[in-house]
Write a structure and sequence with these properties.
Layout: H1 4-27, E1 43-44, H2 46-55, E2 60-64, H3 68-73, E3 75-76, E4 80-81, H4 84-90, E5 100-104, H5 109-120, E6 126-129, H6 132-138, E7 143-144, H7 153-163
Parallel strand pairs: 1-6, 2-4, 2-5, 5-6
Antiparallel strand pairs: 3-7
């Protein structure tokens, strides 16, 4: 009937068609936006983070995503304010490598939203501080009150234009 070579060729062509159909279904349809496996979240306890942050502050960009009013009441020492409402406009100036971006908020929920957004935008250098500022205070870590140390697109762009790097980011030669 059929030679062995013809059967083998038919099987190989069928396998290639099946692979191409799978690629079409997954990558060319809305299925590519579905997570079949939950994305990993790099969680860090406030005490562990603070220990590493104080030892290596140049390796981190520590962002509080709460509103400026909440941030001014009390915020983790060393954090800057980038409200969640502006994150979608300002994420483009954040470093994608060379620094970890640590996110904190009031109780850990809002910073997780920011984490998910940045992860969706391709950031892999993220850290989520568990429990937010509430857990930070419970663990007895330093808190600052007062004026918002806010990072904005204009601040980053002006710093980048004069120094070549965004504020808080190491120069890469």
């Amino acid at each position: 009937m059929f030679s062995r070579n013809a059967v083998f060729l038919f099987a190989a062509i069928s396998a290639v068609i099946a692979i191409l159909a799978t690629i079409f279904v997954i990558y060319l349809t809305p299925l590519k936006y579905m997570n079949l496996v939950a994305p990993a979240v790099h969680e860090m306890d406030p005490s562990a983070f603070w220990k590493d942050y104080t030892a290596h502050p140049d390796e981190y960009l520590f962002i509080d995503v709460r509103d400026p009013d909440e941030y001014n009441i009390a915020h983790a020492k060393g954090s800057i304010n980038m409200p969640i409402a502006t994150l979608a406009d300002e994420y483009k100036v954040l470093p994608r490598h060379g620094k970890f971006i640590a996110l904190i908020c009031g109780d850990g929920r809002l910073s997780m939203v920011g984490y998910g957004f940045l992860q969706f935008e391709g950031f892999t250098n993220l850290i989520h501080i568990t429990g937010g500022i509430q857990n930070w205070i419970v663990e007895g870590l330093p808190v600052t009150q007062g004026t918002s140390t806010r990072i904005s697109t204009s601040t980053v762009l002006s710093s980048t234009m004069t120094t070549g790097t965004p504020p808080g980011c190491p120069k890469i030669s």
